[in-house]
Amino acid sequence: MPATDIRIAVDCMGGDVGLPVTIPAAVAFAQRNADTRFLLAGDPAAIEAQLQASQGPTRDWYEILPASEVVLMDDSVEVALRRKKDSSMRIAVQAVKDGRADACISAGNTGAWMAISRYVLKTLDGIDRPAIATSIPNVKGGATTMLDLGANVDCTAQHLLQFAIMGSALASIVDHREQPTLGLLNIGEEVIKGNEVVKQAAELLRASGLNFHGNVEGDDICKGTVDVIVCDGFVGNVVLKSIEGVARMIATMLRGEFTRDAWSMATGLLAKPALNRLRDRVDNRRYNGAALLGLRGIVIKSHGSADAYAFGWALQRAHEAVQNGLLDGTTRAIDNLRQSLRDAAAAGDIPNDLSDPAT
Amino acid sequence: MPATDIRIAVDCMGGDVGLPVTIPAAVAFAQRNADTRFLLAGDPAAIEAQLQASQGPTRDWYEILPASEVVLMDDSVEVALRRKKDSSMRIAVQAVKDGRADACISAGNTGAWMAISRYVLKTLDGIDRPAIATSIPNVKGGATTMLDLGANVDCTAQHLLQFAIMGSALASIVDHREQPTLGLLNIGEEVIKGNEVVKQAAELLRASGLNFHGNVEGDDICKGTVDVIVCDGFVGNVVLKSIEGVARMIATMLRGEFTRDAWSMATGLLAKPALNRLRDRVDNRRYNGAALLGLRGIVIKSHGSADAYAFGWALQRAHEAVQNGLLDGTTRAIDNLRQSLRDAAAAGDIPNDLSDPAT
User: Fold this and answer.
1) Using one digit for the tens of pLDDT, what is the confidence trace for B321-357?
2) What residue stretch is flagged as signal peptide (chains A, B) (predicted)?
3) What are the domain boundaries of chain A?
4) Which of A33, A142, A216, B135 has minimal CB crowding within 10 Å?
């Protein structure tokens, strides 16, 4: 039996469903991955009850971290951070901080999860603001890494540069893309090509030593033009949800067209294998598990509405991030970036006051 | 025979293709609509040659407006506006300004089209900045009107309010929605709910007398939660292109799944009617024809890559806007808005300095 060397702390109570999703997903994951050990944060009795219902591996695969409180989906950041100091979220992050876990995961309230993670773990040197990154399937059969998805609404050029370095590190370390290509989300032929922040960010990115492809537009996300796309959190959040919305609409329409009369239903039955393959390719449950980047620890966010299958994919993201050394790799990438910017400032390519990524 | 009372000026030279798209589309439209007369702006000889190839109606349905220059797709606004004063774009807009046409349309360079239209026609009282609006199909079987789509990158709360009034007028007058519902595009549960501009815009919208539903998120576009969605031009442009990109990706994948082996191809053939119906429902050619709102004249923008079928839909948009009195209706709506804001300021609901929509 391999050593149980990857330890994941799970906020078992978070999400729209909570325990009936998180526990079965952890059990199934532990069965498939003999190297993984779970720290289950939450109400001990409720966790034990849920564990009874699932058949876990015979090995010693988990430990319970008691937590007396639960952050609700509509709790404010204030409440989550100041009033619920014994929440399952807080306990899961604390396990990473204390070195007892290598990664932590929650399907709860995104704002609270980000705030608690940031408060407990702090940001990496050179990073002002953590960002949320996820993968979006593209027509090339791969996935495009996109960030920020909602942690930062108002961004400076330097923040976008920080997102770029973190996103590139994620794509190269976890998705094994050598020198991932990087695009800056912008608008096209229309009246004004981008605002000031985006223009300045492009300048910094050209000097960054990253594999900067240039500006990309909205349709480049699904085209897979670049490996990583950077934008501010307002744009990223709206775009991600728009994409999910249109995919859902097309799925609904497709279902509608294949159920509207007997002939359509018959052909739909025959076409089922092809339609199922399509469904699997765009199934966003397979892309569950956004990474909260820029923190001194690996933190993963699952969709609140995830089922056990989707939550399993988010656990997989946590596992891969630990296995591939995301944290050390990101730290090294930031050091390299700083050197590139110092060189660029010395060569007069960028202003001196932009020579450090942190503001 | 009905009176030919709707006059549309067409930039015949604009777009990726130009004459072979614009002329056949105008011919076909004139055949279907006996009330429409065209003013064809461009190179007279080239227009005549193209007209020879198409069988127009027997009635006197067109007039040629000679123009010696063409704005190219990559011409800067500067070049289009200052150096090409006899362009087909300029001549088409001028026809509206001179009262010879009721609307004008181009498939050319968006930035140039907007700049020329604004320069020649000027904005309506109470409107600082024109905006670009289009319809996006939603799962309810209708369409969501969205603006701005790229004319304005940096917006204040008052600009968003102006977009709201113009978009509502468009939806109520052209799409015949009584008191169209209005949403402000924002981000959801994440860390910070919207930036300052969006928060202030919500306050103004609540005082505006418009049918303001509140904040909406990206997935509400295709859900059809509201009739009109307002956002700044950067976000709108990126979202529109993202949506087009994901729809195209799913169409490509669908084609791929139905051609990968003999069985799939056979079922694909049987399923063709259902698949074609789906294609028609999401065919963005049917939604071609964005409106440039806030100008003292009706100005329509067709996709640059439109074929004659798509350009015909854009002509239809122009026709409907004239027929339903979009311009007068918008002017009345702005007057009503001003009254509402004055009342709200008098009642202390909004600050005094926000009581006029124009900044």
Assistant:
1) 999 999 999 998 888 888 888 888 888 877 766 666 6
2) none
3) 1-121+290-324, 125-282+327-359
4) A142
CATH number, span A1-121+290-324: 3.40.718.10
B267 touches chain A (CB under 8 A): yes
Amino acid of residue B169: A
Say how far apart CA B324 and CA A251 lie, in whole Å: 35
Closest-CA distance of chain B to residue A3, Å: 38
Count of alpha carbons within 13 angstroms of residue A202, beta-carbon side: 14
pLDDT-derived band at B56, boundaries 50, 70, 90: confident
Residues B322, B103 contacting (CB under 8 angstroms): yes
Tokens representing A358? 């942190």
Give the Cα separation of B223 and B221 in Å (integer): 6
Whether the CB of A269 is below 8 Å from some CB of chain B: the reply is no
Q: Which residues contact B264 (CB under 8 A, 6 or more apart)?
A: A273, A274, B257, B258
Q: In terms of CATH architecture, what is B1-121+286-324?
A: 3-Layer(aba) Sandwich (3.40)
Q: Does domain B130-282+327-359 have CATH number 3.30.70.2740?
A: no
Tokens 């109470």 locate to B126
For domain A125-282+327-359, the CATH architecture is 3-Layer(aba) Sandwich (3.40)
| Contact present, A240 and A146 (Cβ < 8 Å) | yes
